[in-house]
Design goal:
Chain A has about 550 residues and is of the alpha+beta class. In chain A, about 35% of the residues lie in helices and about 20% in strands. Chains A, B: Keywords: FAD, Flavoprotein.
Chain lengths: ~550, ~550
């Protein structure tokens, strides 16, 4: 396997061959709400037309880096630099498609061992070269932007050659995994031995273990299997001041938890080279259910009751009225859609909200939980649809980013954002975020269609995940995005939510971080960073050193 | 209620009226293993005979503090100072009983609000007065020692007047609680509304919410209800640089987790004044089971299987051969004990290990889990004893510290220590720690009797909790304790355990912290501390600033 090959096409999501046309039903609904710009075709520029700044890496530094990883693994060709210049946020895609890169790494370096990472960081610190750790490059918050800061050059360190599952402790149910292992490779290795991490962010196919840990990631099954921060039991981090190794313990009272300072540190403290993760046995039984609720509030009430009663859902995903309507609009045929709506109307449901759930475990246990779940949902007014909508969602669960590429080509923008909040604030927050987005976008003359779903449950609250569609404001797409992002983020913070439930901070959420954690915490974080990264080379401009304004 | 009254007697554990004689069976077993020093009676000195250094608090500082809390709540009388001079570790008790205090706070201050705590810290920072946060004073690791450091004076700030349950969010299942609320008061308030935190450290009756959070505490039901670090969802901390408020979120990806830096910070960063905690509904059903295993290994194997299969035990406590023998020795009568042993021998069990478990929840769920648990235990060779041993253990679960007071009087020492480790290391670690303690104590001429139990289960490992008995080395008790502590701690670190699973670091575990977390982490922690406590007044000499040697 060539682990230096970029896995994603340089201008968009994933790999070729997965794109399809926007479905007619979706066009109808987007036309109605946003004014679909018919006939637009805005393809991305060609690779050779991308404006790419000259590499500023000196020969001397290049030689020093090459001495560590061998010359072949210090790359500064056009394709490599461009494919490591940005993540996959909406503004990233707007800039990439237009060929307007404002920054790019001067080189990409591919170490093959933790010792090589240690050595690279020592040289970069000595030579004042900024470092951007790079896993799969799927960040949607500017986390892998090649920010040079005050330094003479910036290199991306790709972890993709650190691709080994080092150890599986079958007795303790932990796996020690190198940072550059991609989702599918990890699951293949684990499942061959009967285990699973079951960490499935939407980026699963193109993101790495190191990226998950660095961004405090949550996956589509994290309600059942836990967020990555809950599943990290040991860590090895390379820092400019030397390696940090945190031993694997199930639990400890030995002071503040060091792991929880490195998990979510987004490459600003160092490079996570290895993580010891909690794994589980592959469940012997998996059962799904799908429901329509008469409204969003009864759906969230059911989810809250299920979660708080210890029912342990492994997947739970409740779409609000708009998201459900958008899903129904894309059903096989208009006839089919009308049939579903008539069926629901006959049962008093005129603003349906779809819930899909899944229970994993031993057969008898799964059966008991499912039956308990059904009782709760029915009491809350849910109408059962069997397992098909859930399995259908699962089948397509990694494909929606391709739709974004297609919509961008056809003159639309698509943005996503997420938060979490205590149950007592969810209803109000759901409405206030939607309203803020709609007001802002209407004012700009590009009315938005806003979808939302709940995808992660906790005893004390849940996540809210938004998808926003609008017509592109041609020539002012970045300003349009900033306005949208600011309106949503202001509403999140004002409503008591967190600025990000699983996308991380990067550059894009940094302006709202002080409101959430306070300036004191950021000062503490910067002081801790100064110990391991005294010259500040690690991922400049992100997280606690991110911009004050978008 | 007078919240400035010390809850514990000044020279020992808890309150008068709970002491009893050491049971004859215990004496027999301790005589056999340790050489019981018959006829010894070493009562504690009288309060007036305790050597207490003069208070060095200046009138000026005293006046400033009094302006904040009123004069009445700045106390420097003998009884108040002595009762805040130490925690309840073995060396604390040795020193207190002998009246040989090496340090004591110059005054104890009792703020009644978070604003008063903020103001007190500002004055102490300005006046260079060291601060020891004081909850219930039950630390067994030197966490509340009045270490003056380089400062002119040291005050203990007692949180006992911050005694309010501020808010219960019944929808989100969280309770916001002031730091000085004691365990029984919290549970009374919560249970009156149908909720529980179910956090029951052995110190439950005499310890506070703030103390639990500051020491990263675990309780006897934490296997089911979670450690305190898992249950803190929001925090308010007063620091010399000003208050830090961490908003309540169920989960977030907004960078490293700030809560997890303050949880377990042991008063070195500031004073936790308020915590928002996850609570649960009081379970409708509670069922217990007790078993004898043929050996410790089959017992841990059963626990591992139960935990890893998602059975969700709420209490699990497996005693090793020595602890089981010690428990049996204290049974009602010799006849009864012999009866039990004969019953077990007939079933092939000659070295019995007692396991008690409890399942909490809805009735049908509890029944299902219990039946599943029974199947696992039987397969591993467990012999069922019904629920009585568990309920009996529960009845007495807060009383063993009183036995320690009695044994100290009768010429014995009793020490406890705890760790956790991955399942794959537990068996070896269990043996190596016992062996290290026994070797060290035998060499000193005071052979030890070492008991151990598992009390906290995690998917990836479990805790080990040791109790050590030996004859006092009269006149060299502190040296004897240091030797014992060092031998055990060296073995813990060497065997891959954590230096403390729930007792915290304080002064006593500080020498082993670098081996566990590395020096880099401690430097990061000190740098973060310098931001909130620039002059270093907060709880000097503990945790990251604790001694390098015992």
């Amino acid at each position: 396997m060539d682990n230096t090959r970029p896995r994603m096409r340089w201008w968009g999501w994933g790999e070729d061959g997965n794109d399809g046309p926007v479905k007619p039903g979706a066009k109808v609904i987007l036309s109605k709400h946003c004014g679909w710009p018919a006939g637009v075709d805005r393809p991305h520029v060609e690779l050779e037309d991308v404006a790419l700044p000259e590499s500023t890496l000196t020969d001397q530094v290049r030689t020093r880096l090459g001495e560590i990883v061998s010359e072949e693994f210090v790359r500064d060709d056009r394709a490599t630099r461009i494919s490591h210049a940005a993540g996959r946020s909406l503004p990233d895609l707007i800039r990439l498609r237009a060929g307007q890169l404002t920054s790019a790494p001067d080189a990409v370096v591919y170490p093959a061992s933790t010792a090589e990472v240690d050595a690279l960081l020592a040289v970069c610190a000595e030579q004042s070269v900024a470092v951007v750790p790079f896993g799969g490059g799927t960040s949607v918050v500017g986390g892998v932007d090649a920010v040079r800061g005050e330094f003479s050059a910036v290199v991306s360190i790709s972890l993709t050659r650190l691709d080994q599952v080092v150890d599986i402790d079958e007795e303790s149910l932990t796996a020690t995994v190198q940072a550059g292992v991609f989702g599918p490779d990890l699951e293949e290795t684990l499942q061959a031995r009967g285990f699973t991490l079951a960490h499935y962010p939407q980026s699963f196919e193109f993101s790495t273990v190191g990226g998950w840990v660095a961004t405090r990631s949550a996956g589509q099954q994290s309600t059942g299997y836990g967020r990555i921060d809950e599943n990290v039991h040991g860590l090895r981090v390379a820092t400019p001041a030397g390696p940090v190794e945190l031993r694997t313990t199930p639990a400890t009272a030995a002071g503040p938890n060091p792991r929880q300072l490195f998990v979510g540190s987004e490459g600003t403290l160092g490079i996570i080279t290895e993580a010891t993760l909690r794994i589980r046995r592959v469940p012997s039984s998996v059962q799904a259910d799908s429901w329509f609720f008469p409204d969003f509030a009864s759906g969230t009430a059911a989810l809250r009751e299920m979660e708080q009663s210890g029912l342990h859902l492994d997947i739970a995903r409740l779409s609000d009225v708009n998201e459900t309507a958008f899903g129904l609009a894309q059903l096989g045929s208009e006839l089919q859609r009308k049939g579903v709506l008539a069926y629901l109307r006959a049962r008093g449901i005129t603003t349906p909200c779809l819930l899909v759930v899944r229970y994993d475990g031993a057969q008898s246990d799964v059966r008991a939980r499912r039956s308990q779940g059904r009782a709760i949902v029915r009491r809350r007014g849910g109408v059962n649809l069997g397992s098909v909508p859930e399995t259908s969602w699962e089948k397509h669960r990694f494909s929606t980013p391709y739709l974004r590429d297609q919509l961008l080509r056809e003159g639309m923008i698509v943005e996503t954002m997420e938060t979490s909040a205590p149950w007592s604030k969810v209803e109000e927050l759901h409405d206030s975020i939607s309203a803020a987005i709609q007001a802002e976008m209407a004012e700009r003359g590009t009315p938005a269609f806003v979808l939302c779903h709940v995808s992660h449950l906790y005893a004390s609250g849940c996540s809210l995940y938004y998808t926003v569609f609008a017509k592109q404001q041609v020539g002012a797409e970045i300003a349009q995005w900033k306005a949208l992002k600011s309106a949503a983020s202001d509403a999140i913070v004002a409503g008591g939510g967190t600025i990000t439930h699983h996308h991380a901070v990067g550059t894009d959420h940094a302006p709202w971080l002080p409101a959430e954690t306070g300036q004191m915490w950021l000062r503490m974080l910067r002081a801790a960073k100064a110990e391991v990264d005294p010259t500040g080379i690690m991922n400049p401009g992100k997280l606690m050193n991110g911009p004050d304004q978008l």
